[in-house]
């Protein structure tokens, strides 16, 4: 009977899927109207149920008539820690999915003919870099929630409601550092907890290889034993349907069994294009926390921490200068710092402001070396948290009008543009508007201390920029 079923299934699914999901099945016995098949694992069973239940039903009914039943016998690896959960989840699954389809699941303790774990030697280890820890992960407003959620998760993996924990943020803002710090902390507390860090890219490659080598069984077995799974850069799963499917199943399985899942992504889940909705909705089960670009103070702290750990000294004004100037991301900030040290060592000179400006000019191409209208608009926009478009727009909202006037004022002071040209760059306003703006800002500086302080900060930023 099973042979006939296989013949039928072969015509219905792709060769690869057939090899992966149907060839490993063994028919055990047929009694009355019930066919019992042996599947290699609980995971395997779940996968079949999720993806092939219709086909299986079809062929059983075809072979045994409408009364036909299919029974699964799931091999349980008795040495494995997963033993318990398998036994526990089975009856539930059975009840949930019994809608009219005659099917029973029995768990038989059979010794496992499939070789267990280990994808490759490396995968036995956690892939964690011990240099990423919480001690050297500077805290700031930019990462407070993510960081403390990370610590909570590290203290009680799988137990807090932060499961999954999803960290998102732009490139170089510290995602990998943070998720690895969590993994390292779990490891360091001597918990019996198998932590695995893997980039979604690597996961994808492993999965594709496993399919190619007909090794999907060890792939899934391996992932299902993980206690804390850290998947970095999940945006990479975008558009990879099969990989997402596999990840979805692993995710569910681990989550159901109280295992911790930690993920990172370069954007918020809602902005992740090309990921299946069911996966995205899972991501939102736990906690989603973002990482922002650190503010000036935090950038200072990051630089000083780095100096301390590398045992180098950099004068205060240079630290300030770097913290001011590099406002793209932390990786770039570190990059500038490293080349600055390299320059100083090579040229046997001291690190000073001059050298820092020179270094920055050479390596950060997209930072304009002069204060221009664009730079002022961008800086003022950031400072007041207003978009550059709004600065140029017609909006008459008070905050925007003030920010716009400040930007015009700074353009007058720091560029050689004529009033006419400045007006032109602010949505085609005329020169009298610019004169009025400059006058209002000067007046406000005189009467409003807080405002005067803001202008000072912005001016400082402009001066830092000038080489
Ligand atoms: P991402 O994975 O988001 O691209 P990384 O985690 O690789 O970013 O971080 C880039 C660099 O910046 C790393 O060297 C990291 O150690 C450092 N870094 C990022 N955030 C911080 C922070 N808050 N404190 C200290 N170093 C940080
Ligand atoms: Mg990263």
Globally, the shape reads elongated
Low-confidence stretches: 78-103, 108-124
Main sheet: strands, sense, barrel: 5 strands, parallel
Enter the CATH topology name of the largest domain. Answer: Rossmann fold
Key descriptive features of the protein:
4 domains; ATP-binding; four-stranded mixed beta sheet; five-stranded parallel beta sheet; DNA replication origin binding; single chain; Helicase, Ruva Protein, domain 3; binds adenosine-5'-diphosphate; alpha/beta; GMP Synthetase, Chain A, domain 3; Chromosomal replication initiator protein DnaA; binds magnesium ion; Rossmann fold; 9 strands; 10% strand; 467 residues; DNA-binding; nucleotide-binding
What does this structure look like?
With 467 residues, this protein is α/β, with parallel strands linked by helices. The chain folds into four domains: 2-108, 2-Layer Sandwich (GMP Synthetase, Chain A, domain 3); 123-290, P-loop containing nucleotide triphosphate hydrolases (Rossmann fold), CATH 3.40.50; 296-363, Helicase, Ruva Protein, domain 3; 373-465, Chromosomal Replication Initiator Protein Dnaa, Chain: A (Orthogonal Bundle), CATH 1.10.1750.10. 55% of the residues lie in helices and 10% in strands. The longest helix has 23 residues, at 42-64. The protein starts with a helix and ends with a helix. The site of adenosine-5'-diphosphate (ADP) has 16 residues, from helix 6 and helix 13.
């Amino acid at each position: 009977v099973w042979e006939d079923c296989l013949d039928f299934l072969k015509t219905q699914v792709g060769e690869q899927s057939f090899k992966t999901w149907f060839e490993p099945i063994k028919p055990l016995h047929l009694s009355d109207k019930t066919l019992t098949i042996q599947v290699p694992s609980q995971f395997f069973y779940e996968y079949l149920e999720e993806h092939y239940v219709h086909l299986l039903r079809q062929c059983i009914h075809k072979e045994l008539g409408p009364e036909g039943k299919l029974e699964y016998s799931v091999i349980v690896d008795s040495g494995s820690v997963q033993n318990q959960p398998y036994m526990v989840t089975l009856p539930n699954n059975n009840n949930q999915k019994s809608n009219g389809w005659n099917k029973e699941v029995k768990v038989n303790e059979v010794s496992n003919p499939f070789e267990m774990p280990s994808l490759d030697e490396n995968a036995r280890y956690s892939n964690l870099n011990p240099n990423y820890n919480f001690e050297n992960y500077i805290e700031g407003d930019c990462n407070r929630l993510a960081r403390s959620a990370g610590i909570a998760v590290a203290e009680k993996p799988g137990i807090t409601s932060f499961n999954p924990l999803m960290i998102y943020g732009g490139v170089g803002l510290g995602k990998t550092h943070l998720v690895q710090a969590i993994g390292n902390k779990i490891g360091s507390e001597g918990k019996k907890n198998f932590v695995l860090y893997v980039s979604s890219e690597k996961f994808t490659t492993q999965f594709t290889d496993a399919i190619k080598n007909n090794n999907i069984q060890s792939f899934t077995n391996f992932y299902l034993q993980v206690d804390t799974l850290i998947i970095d850069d999940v945006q990479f799963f975008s558009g990879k349907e099969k990989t997402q499917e596999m990840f979805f199943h692993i995710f569910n399985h681990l989550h159901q069994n109280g295992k911790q899942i930690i993920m990172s992504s370069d954007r918020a889940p809602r902005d992740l294009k090309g990921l299946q909705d069911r996966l995205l909705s899972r991501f939102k089960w736990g906690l989603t926390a973002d990482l922002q670009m650190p503010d000036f103070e935090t950038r200072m702290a990051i630089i000083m921490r780095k100096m301390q750990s590398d045992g180098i000294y950099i004068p205060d004004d240079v630290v300030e200068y770097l913290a001011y100037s590099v406002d793209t991301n932390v990786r770039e900030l570190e990059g500038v710092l490293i080349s600055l040290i390299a320059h100083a060592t090579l040229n046997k000179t001291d690190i000073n402001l001059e050298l820092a400006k020179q270094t920055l000019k050479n390596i950060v191409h997209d930072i304009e070396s002069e204060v221009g209208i664009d730079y002022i608009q961008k800086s003022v926009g950031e400072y007041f948290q207003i978009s550059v478009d709004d600065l140029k727009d017609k909006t008459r909202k008070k905050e925007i009008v003030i920010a716009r006037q400040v930007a015009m004022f700074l353009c007058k002071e720091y560029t050689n543009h004529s009033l006419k040209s400045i007006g032109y760059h602010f949505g085609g306003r005329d020169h009298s508007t610019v004169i009025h703006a400059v006058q209002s800002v000067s007046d406000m500086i005189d009467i409003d201390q807080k405002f005067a302080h803001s202008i000072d900060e912005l001016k400082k930023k402009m001066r830092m920029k000038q080489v």
